[in-house]
Design goal:
- The strands form nine sheets. Strands 29, 30, 31, 32 and 33 form a five-stranded antiparallel beta sheet that branches.
- Strand 20 (297-300) and strand 21 (306-307) form a beta hairpin.
- With 473 residues, this protein is mostly beta strands.
- It is built from six helices and 34 strands.
- Helices cover 7% and strands 38% of the residues.
- It is globular and about 55 Å long.
Length: 473
């Protein structure tokens, strides 16, 4: 499913070329048993998303990991469009990260894409000793052929926003990417833009607090971040910190526009229920402005009198026309036209979660946006528990996939019924002309029906690439 060119490597020459790619036929999903009460290892599931296939909308393969208690979280490719000019590179390995264990799994998806197999496991001791990083979160493939991974802490459990560099051939840990003394106070996600010698990283929180469940007190005590960081891409140094304030509390996923010439992007701030635009100024430094704010809902029957939306995942279409994000607690997915990046316009919205659904434990007593609580979503006889969490968009921008698990510890706290009944994976059809979102009623992966018991589904990677995996240099 790569570009047909005997002299080129993986991916596509430009983002607009990627939009013409063949439709994805498989999706790889990280599935978690950690902290659910089921004594099984986490696993990678392979989902058939080809509408012409007899096994469409089914899990066709499961690859269990060889260890327990990994908390598989994000996954990514060994190579992408950043290696397009290198014919020696192939997009044939998935890199899976254990958030709790700090273990790295390399999975062969090239030999048989429908039945992946484990290629290698990088043990946490190697990560600790060679990089002094732990609690691994996000990753990107680099133009050098290496793989770069962000960390949320150090081996002792203290917060630390650093990066691990993997050899793209042997998958051995090469060391820390950042210069000594330049790690950020907190770590989470990152995105680089080499034509402008820039990288932006975001912040989550202190590992021991995150894994003990969310507490507003921890936010008040400074256990979670509220800044994004600007890095000199060539020197590997942190050169600027942008404090986003209360509205920018817990900035999570960060995305540059796909155009490699762009000097702007967006970050979704979960606790602040806001989206900030970051951009390079005429002076040459960087700034940020809030461009979207989702109002809190005043509620009864919940942990606090006001419920934030908890923006957890964002993605930008390949043509940089639309921004999508998920509100994990409120339960909706939104689509914004970002033709004017300073003034995004809401053009699509669907409700798929149990957060404020009618008939649930939460009663909304005041809502600035809705006149009544949305109906619960029932697909193929299953009432969807949890809220929309990870989202991934197809290259052509027409299919948005969504899973409902955030982190097993937070799932148990906010959506205990989802832990009992299993997570779900859905497909949302996107109107790419006028904007608009529609749930595909023919597609559902019910992780409550797994052979070993209900599991939690988190991150996804689409075969051939998606709008969160490819960077152009």
């Amino acid at each position: 499913m790569e570009a047909s060119c005997s002299a080129c490597g993986p991916g596509y020459k430009t983002p607009l070329d990627a939009m013409k790619a063949p439709q994805e036929d498989l999706i790889y999903v990280s599935c978690i048993y950690n902290s659910t009460g089921i004594n099984k290892p986490d696993y990678l599931s392979t989902v058939d998303v080809d509408p012409k296939s007899p096994t469409y909308s089914e899990i066709i393969h499961r690859l269990p990991m060889p260890n327990m208690n990994d908390e598989l979280h994000h996954l990514g490719w060994n190579a992408c469009s950043s290696c397009y000019t290198d014919p020696t590179k192939k997009r044939d390995r998935l890199v899976l990260l254990g958030l709790i264990s700090s273990r790295i799994y390399i999975v062969d998806v090239g030999t048989d894409p429908r039945a992946p197999k484990l290629h290698k496991a990088v043990e946490p001791t190697e990560v600790y000793t060679k990089s002094n990083q732990a609690y691994l979160h996000s990753l990107h493939c680099l133009g050098s052929g290496e793989v770069m991974i962000s960390s949320a802490g150090d081996p002792s459990g203290k917060p630390k926003g650093g990066f691990v560099l993997l050899d793209g051939e042997t998958f051995e840990v090469k060391g820390a990417w950042e210069k000594e003394g330049h790690a950020a106070p907190f770590g989470y996600d990152f995105w680089y833009q080499p034509r402008h010698n820039a990288m932006i990283s975001s912040e989550w929180g202190t590992p021991k607090n995150m894994f003990a469940g969310y507490k507003q007190d921890d936010v008040n005590k400074g256990m979670y971040g509220h800044s994004i960081h600007v890095w000199d891409w060539n020197k590997h140094t942190r050169i600027q910190t942008l404090d986003l304030g209360e509205d920018g509390s817990i900035p999570m996923e960060v995305k540059f526009l796909h155009n490699p010439e762009a000097t702007e992007g967006f970050v979704g701030c979960s606790r602040g229920s806001s989206v900030f635009r970051f951009y390079k100024t005429q002076k040459g430094d960087w700034a940020a402005e809030r461009v979207i704010k989702v109002p809190n809902k005043k509620v009864e029957g919940w942990a606090m009198p006001e419920m934030p939306s908890l923006i957890t995942s964002i993605v930008i279409s390949m043509d940089d026309q639309y921004l999508f994000f998920s509100n994990w607690l409120h339960g909706d997915v939104r689509q914004y036209d970002i033709s004017n990046t300073s003034k995004p316009k809401l053009v699509g919205q669907v409700w798929i979660g149990a957060g404020i659904a009618k008939g649930g434990p939460v009663t909304v007593v005041h809502d600035e946006e809705l006149k009544c609580q949305p109906e619960p979503l029932i697909l193929k006889g299953k009432k969807i528990q949890g809220g929309p969490q990870m989202i991934q968009l197809s290259f052509d921008g027409k299919r948005l996939y969504c899973t409902t698990s955030l982190l097993s510890f937070w799932d148990k706290q906010f959506y205990p019924e989802m832990v009992k009944e299993g997570a779900a994976m859905l497909q949302i059809d996107v109107d790419t002309e006028k904007g608009g979102l529609t749930i595909n009623k023919d597609f559902l992966i019910d992780f409550g029906k797994e052979p070993s018991g209900p599991s939690l589904a988190h991150d996804m990677r689409l075969s051939g690439g998606d709008c969160s995996s490819d960077i152009w240099i």
